[in-house]
């Protein structure tokens, strides 16, 4: 899931889009990690992510509860979620730091804000995955508006056909921006699709706008 | 994925759920083009939150999280779509599933998804240490997908520069010759949502490799998203930035940062 760093969009939208991934490393520290990961899951849930889920169970947007996500933890557990404000994302990091479980934590989002947070919390970041953009046959790609919605799914499951059809339904007033968000967002099965951002993007197409 | 013609009602509901337009109507029933289908499972996945007028959103939250009144329904009302696992298992086609359906774990690595954990666990795996860079080329993303003929164009180009392909990436296990970057013939026409070419090299090789990647990009019939991983220096600087500037490659404003909270921490490679 390298794609959480390749989210497209304007600064206005990207500045409210933070993906949090907490991961046990298979073969290194995964044994006995479940208890700590449960604490992290419960802590981030309380803070209020816009989406949360797991590959094994699905997401809250597809009707899965946080209890089911917890019960579905494998022997190499992971927490995947998205926050639609930097305040919530940074509150989650602060809490995870306090829990000190030894799990790996990555945050995808605007680096400027992430670095500020690291300084404030006394966090020394280890490594960074930079996006050097898209290359190759770019003339085959859909419009930037479609790409903004496509690239919020880390695994490419929220596809162009459904997004284009959903956009048309919003334009015709057949779906509200909220309904459109659920219509496409539940296809992301790991839980990092930013539903609040999607809703704002769909609002641009609503007939009363 | 296949559709049972006898069960298909011809409603067409499944068509937009395929990210690659593999489902179409033929003689009033839906059929799946087996060349285009990447076995991602989107058309058959039964998790479905009803988005009609009955969808209720959490009133107390600023998000659109559904409260309770979702309804699980099958995407196909007659259960006509099915995954012929017995027919796929053990055949070259099964790689479509491993590289496209994140709910599956690759048999060889046990890691779900298409690559390794890349930067996600780098603080404890030490996959990329100081003085090194990791490059990840996600072939087919966004939107277009890829086959392994396209992937091979990239892996051959980079192999000529002597890169070392990541052992724990499932892609490496499909190679005929990792030194030359060639794939086994039986996999070449298989289509997937994406495949991530991952390699590690010394920091001083960065410019040569990125130039080669820019060049091979012109030969492709698909797209790729390009990642560059490195460790922060002791003083917190990012050592690749000046080299990238020389190449005219500006990193985008959003990135994935490993916060260094994992234990045991690894940042230098032992001699």
Overview of the structural elements:
The complex is a heterodimer of chains A (209) and B (271). By secondary structure, chain A is an alpha+beta fold. Chain A folds into two domains: 2-121, Alpha-Beta Plaits, CATH 3.30.70; 141-203, no CATH class. Chain A has helices spanning 11-14, 34-47, 66-71, 86-99, 111-121, 144-150, 160-171, 177-185, 195-203; strands at 18-23, 51-54, 58-59, 78-83, 104-110, 127-136. In chain A, a hairpin with a 3-residue loop joins strand 2 (51-54) and strand 3. The radius of gyration of chain A is 17 Å and the shape is globular. The two termini of chain A are 35 Å apart. Chain B folds into two domains: 1-83, Alpha-Beta Plaits; 118-247, ACT domain (Alpha-Beta Plaits), CATH 3.30.70.260. In chain B, the strands form five sheets. Chain B has a four-stranded antiparallel sheet with strand order 7-11-5-12, with helices on one face. The model of chain B is unreliable at 47-73 (pLDDT under 50). Chains A and B meet through strand 1, strand 3, helix 4, strand 5 and helix 5 of A and helix 3, strand 5, helix 5, strand 12 and strand 13 of B. Strand 6 (127-136) of chain A pairs antiparallel with strand 12 (223-231) of chain B.
């Amino acid at each position: 899931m390298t794609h959480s760093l390749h989210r497209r969009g304007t600064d206005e939208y990207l500045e409210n889009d933070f993906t949090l991934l907490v991961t046990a490393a298979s073969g290194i520290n995964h044994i006995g990690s479940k208890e700590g990961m449960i604490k992290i899951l419960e802590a981030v849930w309380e803070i209020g992510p816009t989406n949360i889920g797991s590959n094994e169970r699905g997401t809250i947007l597809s009707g899965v509860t946080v209890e089911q996500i917890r019960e579905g933890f494998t022997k190499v557990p992971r927490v995947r979620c998205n926050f639609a404000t930097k305040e919530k994302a940074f509150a989650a990091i602060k809490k995870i730091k306090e829990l000190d479980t030894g799990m790996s934590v990555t945050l995808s989002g605007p680096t400027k804000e992430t670095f500020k947070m690291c300084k404030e919390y006394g966090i020394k970041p280890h490594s960074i995955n930079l996006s050097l953009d898209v290359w190759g046959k770019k003339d085959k790609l859909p419009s930037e508006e479609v790409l903004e919605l496509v690239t919020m799914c880390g695994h490419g499951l929220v596809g162009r056909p459904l997004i284009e059809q959903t956009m048309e339904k919003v334009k015709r007033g057949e779906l509200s921006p909220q309904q459109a968000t659920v219509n496409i967002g539940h296809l992301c099965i790991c839980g990092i699709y930013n539903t609040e951002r999607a809703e704002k993007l769909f609002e641009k197409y609503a007939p009363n706008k | 994925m296949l559709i049972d013609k006898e069960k298909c009602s011809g409603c067409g509901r499944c068509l937009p759920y395929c990210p690659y337009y593999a489902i179409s109507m033929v003689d009033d029933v839906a059929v799946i083009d087996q060349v285009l289908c990447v076995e991602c499972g989107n058309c058959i996945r039964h998790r479905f939150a009803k988005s009609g007028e009955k969808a209720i959103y959490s009133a107390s939250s600023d998000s659109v999280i559904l409260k309770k009144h979702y309804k699980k329904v099958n995407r196909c009302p007659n259960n006509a779509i099915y995954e012929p696992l017995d027919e796929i298992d053990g055949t070259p086609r099964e790689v479509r599933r491993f590289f496209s359906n994140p709910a599956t774990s690759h048999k060889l690595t046990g890691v779900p998804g298409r690559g390794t954990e890349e930067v996600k666990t780098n603080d404890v795996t030490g996959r990329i240490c100081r003085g090194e860079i990791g490059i990840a080329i996600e072939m087919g993303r966004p939107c277009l997908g890829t086959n392994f003929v396209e992937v091979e164009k990239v892996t051959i180009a980079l192999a000529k520069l002597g890169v070392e392909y990541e052992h724990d990436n499932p892609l490496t296990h499909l190679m005929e010759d990792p030194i030359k970057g060639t794939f086994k013939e039986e996999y070449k026409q298989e289509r997937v949502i994406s495949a991530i070419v991952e390699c590690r090299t010394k920091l001083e090789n960065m410019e040569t490799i990125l130039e080669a990647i820019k060049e091979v990009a012109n030969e492709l019939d698909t797209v790729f998203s390009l990642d560059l991983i490195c460790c922060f220096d002791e003083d917190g600087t990012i050592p690749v930035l000046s080299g990238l500037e020389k190449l005219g490659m500006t990193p985008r404003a959003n990135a994935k940062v490993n916060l260094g909270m994992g234990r045991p921490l690894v940042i230098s490679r032992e001699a």
